[in-house]
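Issue: ligand-bound run for protoporphyrin IX containing FE - logging full I/O for the record.

Environment: standard queue, default settings, no custom constraints.

Inputs:
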Amino acid sequence: MPLLPPGPTPWPLPARHIHNFTESSVVNVRNTVRQYTGNVVRKMMFSRRYFGEGRKDGGPGLEEEEHVNSLFTTLAYLYVFSPSDYLPCLRVFDLDGHEKMVKEALRIINKHHDPIVDERIIQWRNGEKKEVEDILDVFITISDTKGKPLLSVEEIKAQLIELMIEIVDNPAHAAEWAMAEMINQPEIMQKAVEEIDRVVGKDRLVQESDIAQLKYVKACAREALRLHPIAPFNVPHVSMADAVVAGYFIPKGSHVLLSRVGLGRNPRVWEEPLKFKPERHMNDEVVDLAEPELRFISFSTGRRGCPGTALGTALTVTLLARLLQCFSWSVPPNQDQIDLTESMNDLFLAKPLHAHAKPRLHASMYGN
Ligand code: HEM
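Outputs:
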């Protein structure tokens, strides 16, 4: 069963959005991939791509921009160190200002979500709505064996935000880094494009059902996740029992922080660890984005591992494959290479990726 929302929307968006920008030729890839995942997530949750009407040229409107930016702001603070996590008595002072920033981001997100959620709840209550069509409907209608709703209104709203944060970030981050690395190594990009042309052709867009056959494209996405994790550490956990891991004793109650960079760039595991080399994954019989052996962390593993592995894979590979299928990409004029310097504050590219895009497909392919 397909995991991505059905119908042509919102999938061709990067294509349509960029196509309308090709007059200026240079595309802000970061913005494009983030708006793409934002569109997908809104479509999955609310059955709509935009809150407003979007822009006339097919790109996101101001509402969508601020929605996605606020989701990324909230996410950034998920990983940030805060003394009040360890000394809760300091929380009231909000010494680092984190709480203020997150509250503001949540205010913006809720400003967009609340009217949709409230209206939908009324529609279900007064019988106007009868069919479950998206995740919001699932959250409203889910009930226990006695028919009692399982989620309160507050819980529905919180769950929507939680899921959105989990979905928008990693696919966009992996696609941006993969594109940056591949533009600097055009032979890798060429190989991926040839695979897409062979498997899919140029008369239709890449679909979720093609993913199994796009082994090299998946290797590129996997390599981006290995070399460029979204955060230096995995989400913090607390151990529930004494344990011995790799010879180390970890007492019950320890805060466990796995270094994603330490694992993915470990020279004892990966040859030339700092080099973007998708070929290293091609010997695997099946190339997957998941890495249950934890030689690097993509979706992690175990009971707290990511529950969205299949959807995350579909989203990431479809996004990357469509960018490659729809456009020929190169370094912007007056630049020799894409600057791959990491930001000082996180593991994003220091400067959002800008690249030159030239359409590869017939103009009719860039419609809705
Ligand atoms: C390429 C895409 C994705 C990547 C790389 C990714 C990665 C991760 C990682 C590393 C974790 C933390 C696991 C841990 O704490 O050990 C996580 C947690 C989680 N992810 Fe994903 N994820 C992706 C997409 C998704 C999608 C599409 C969904 C939505 C269905 C999702 C839902 C979640 C949730 C709900 C958690 C929290 C689980 C918990 O705390 O028990 N993720 N993800």
